[in-house]
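User: Can you fold this complex?
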Amino acid sequence: MKTQRTTVAIATAVVLALGASACGGSGDDGGKSGEKGGKAAANAALTEIANKSDKKGGTVSYELSDTADSFDPGNTYYGWVQNFSRLYGRTLTMFKPAAGKAGLEVVPDMAESLGKASPDAKTWTYTLKPGLKFEDGTPITSKDVKYAVERSNFAPEALSNGPTYFKAHLEGGDKYQGPYKDKSPEGIKSIETPNDRTIVFHLKDAFADFDYLATFSQTAPVPQKADKGAEYVKHIISSGPYKFESYEEGKGATLVRNPQWDPKSDPNRPALPDKIAIRFKINQVTVDNNLLNDSITTDAAGTGVAPQTQPKVLRDAKLKNQTDNPYASATSYIGLNLKVKPFDNVHCRKAVQWGIDKASVQEAQGGDPKGDVATTLLPPSVNGYAKFNLYETPGNKGDLAKAKDELKQCGQPNGFSTTLTARSDRPAEMSMATAVQASMKKLGINVEIKTFPTGKYFTNFAGVPDYVHSHNLGMIMTAWGPDWPTGFGFLDQIANGSAIKPSGGNNVQELDDPQINKALNEAIANTDAAARAKAWGEVDKMIAENASAVPLIYRKNLLLRPRSATNVTVDQAYLGTYNYLLMGSAK
Amino acid sequence: MAAYIIRRLFAAVLLLLVVSAVTFAIFFLVPRIAGQTVDQLATQYVGKDANPDTVAAVKKNLGFDQPVHLQYWHFVKALVVGADYNFGPDASHCDAPCFGYSFKSHIAVWPQLTSRIPITLSLAVGAAVIWLVSGVAIGVLSALKRGTFVDRFFMGVALAGVSLPIFFTGMLAMAVLTVQWPVWGDGINYVAFTDNPAEWAWNLLVPWCSLAFLYSALYARLTRAGMLETMSEDYIRTARAKGLKESAVVAKHGLRSALTPIVTIFGMDFGLLLGGAVITESVFSFKGIGEYAVAGIKDNDLPIVMGVTLVAAFFIVICNLLVDVVYAAIDPRVRYS
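Assistant: Here's the predicted assembly.
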């Protein structure tokens, strides 16, 4: 009898434990949500500021499943780090911290005004506001900005992560060896600092988007005497409202208020929390759990909850009210390589454009919460986006008749065989590739899928023209987000002939159309912002007519807003992450 | 004994050299055989903007333009005498044992390793104590109660423990204890022992138990098998016939003999764990050696991979040496010559 009772007790305990675990996915969690806050509805932070607050104090806690490429403002490329770095690094210009489209506007930060351009858009002058100081109280001068640009663009032996747009556009940028090798006091001659508050950039070509480049963290000042190269990340000198209290490589950091920051010189940073803590390499499911139980403020990477968490969040009405589903300012597309037969023939390319079932691709990559069907390369959240669809099909499911007609004109009436590449460690991309394969089969196009790891995808395989040609990689699955949210920032690296590289390139179609190149180069020289924006849409249409890029999905992320997060809004300038300058915490 | 230990330590150094050479060869030669060029290798350590100038600078600074054997020689030399590196305005000296600088972040590897050892050590020691005590106790109990409900129950649980991977039990425990019933409402975060011993233990409790669940199951089954075999030996019958108390028979004669294989496998397991409890650390997001290894492998970051491999190999060698020394205490037949 005793044994039986024990058995029953143990069995009951096991059943309860398993039941509890099974309930982990139920809506019970949501019972707590909305009690303390979370009054905002789903997507409340897309075009407005959700849980608006100007209350100072508390700690904003970030976690993410990866690490930063670097917190050194001169050694980072990640969009979320650019967003985050504004907390401790002020730049010449910045994106206006505001909700919706207003967040794409560039406004002065350390500079008194936007750049004063010469008529040919080759010379750009900025004047620093008076009284700016580093965290140690020393004045910030134009020389510190110049040094920051020099080290970030011209010292790849130590700081190799960041973009090199300044190097590409500055006069003599190809010759200057960088401040670590060239110890001459004047540095690069094409950046002048006639006095401590003025900095002048002399470019070798007209570049009307320069104010956007000036938003990069690379213009955050760095005092030369404090620079330790790659090790500077351990002791970053702040110019913003927060300074580093601690930093542990690969683990995280804590930031506290910088008393030397003067809010009067900085109307754009409300600086709500007293403290900011960030932890790296936290299991994504744990990050989601911590968002659900409100123990952190946000997922710093801003790429959305894990696939396991998504149904739990969407099925529960209260939790769903805590979600935002913004565009990630990136488009997933297939590059049809113009050097791989039969895609050298525009009709074969158009056959794919007409025949592809984009609705099935959307479903395969996670449905509506993960993205909308794309008809253009430029996503809607980029300056210059124009809505059009040259290959419109019913329900986005493809038009077999039109596709087969193109196949006939291409001289391949019965279809052909080709290879589609995808990144093996990206499950959504793999699913999309399988859906593409299925829809191509209906056309008689036999697609073999070849997969490669993300880390070597562009450096060793899909971004290496020699490899692509020799292995007949006709269709290359990829995705692209802009380095700055304009048509040029988006298209130049993926559609300009000058972006074709022997390795690591992103122009996977090897598109080198003189007219497209000319249109891009002419538009970027135009100082009329409205005319430039119009031009980007037209270039996008020219690329669609060329048919070498098949837009699939405007990517979206499903972000979760914890109840304690205040002043939350999506930042379109930084790939649809939340705006980290505005964010506060009720904790 | 001292001569034996010195001989073993000497052999360990040779073994570590072989391990490092093999790791180096796998890293550099295997991709080369598959057709990877040195430029492609260097491109991996450049950000999104892999222009030729940047790639060339990185290639030169990381020494990829030198023959592989020369690169290996520089690595070994740096381990012994240190090396100078140039990742900034001034050259910096990396003191011995210098594992070099991360290819990706250009941050020195050795300080990273040493800062992570306490985390892995905390995880491994606590879990080892739990699994050793519970595993051996359950194994002995099951052996003595062979065929009863207690035996069947514990062996059933042990089977589950062996079968369930840590990424399942760990994640389940996290979901239940941080979200469903938020006993650890702020999540499970590592706190250094020196900062707050109570918080240290509290936050390690779930990882310890998750890890120990797997191992104690294994040890319970091993102990049970060993005890069953030992307890049927003639000398046990003799001990009982001499009138010794049952507890003395079990502890002094039965368990002592059954422990020899347990100690052997414990040395291996503990050494392996010190080299990084890869999955447990990843599940609980602890920044230990194992998590560092995963980051190094993911980023193809050789200095990190080399550092972790050598530290792991060192721990395994040391633990095995300790096991061999402990043998003499457990089994009087063992002598060192």
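The radius of gyration of chain A is 26 Å. Confidence is low (pLDDT under 50) at residues 1-38 of chain A.
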